[in-house]
Structures are given as C-alpha cells and as structure tokens.
Amino acid sequence: MFFATTGYTLAYAVDSMVLPKFSDYPAKIYQGELKLPTYYKKIGDDWRDDMGKMVSAPVINFAGKYHIGIHSCGASCRYYTFSDLASGSDSDILDMFSNQAGHPLKTTDGRVYITDLISRADSAMLVAQYHIEQSGALKEECRERIFSLANDGKKIKSITKTINLCERLQ
After folding, report:
1. What is the pTM (predicted TM-score) of this model?
2. Which stretch of 9-18, 55-64, 161-170 has the lowest confidence by average pLDDT?
C-alpha cells in the first residue's frame, strides 16, 4: 500500500509541475537567404561536415535563425555546433553539451551520459535531455533541463533545474 501511495504521489507531483512550453518563448523565423557554415558540404543527396561525417541539412531549427548541428566524432562522442544562418557566424555556446576529444561527460557520481538537444525553429527554448548509462546497480535513466537563448543570441540560460525524468517531446 505504501509503494502504491508513494508512486501515485510522485506521478501527481510530476503531472502537476508546470514546465515551460516552446510556445512560451516565441521566435520570428528569418525569411532571407541562408548563409551556410563552410564546414557543411552537400555531396550528392547527402550533407557532410568537415570531418566527412554525415549530418542533417543545415536548416533553421532553433530560435528563428539558428541551426543546431549534431556531429559525431567516434564511438559515444558527439558535439554540437551553433550557427546563425542569417549572418553565417558560429558560436561555441553549446560546448557544454558536447563530449569531444574522447572525454565522456559524467555526472557528479561518475556515471557517463550523452546529451540530446531538442529545439524548435519558432522557439528560443532549448531542452537538454541527459541520457545516463546504467552503472552497477543503478539503472539507466534520463534527466532533463530547460534553457532559453538570451536576446543577444550569445548565451543560453537555464530556466529550470534538472528534472529527474524526461518528457516525451514531439
């Protein structure tokens, strides 16, 4: 009975938590000519980065004029690029989500994790989902934190604390 009550209480607390929505951070989508980063090359029907790895086509997918690109650098290694497709400039503001140079990201208790970023072209809200690997008796889990892009486009700021579950976002 205790576990059933505790489970119901936890589910109610999560369901009643008011989390920000993409629509709370609207962004007007740039309609001009896109200026693509030089490290993206179209070869046939595929897009490749400067390491020759396949990537998604560089399109506006965040905050009205930005492209968040995900790149592979080997097994369990990924990094993100942040490109202003209106000006053609790049920024390193997403480096905190990347695990380049063969150094896996780790939680404070030493567990390895990979970050997925979820964005919308018409929103300045960014969702980071931290997929934490199983370790010993600890099960695999997912944690989530929500950020927004500053008005000047030069930094992202946290708008929630880390939540110990991931919402299913479409």
Report:
1. 0.85
2. 9-18
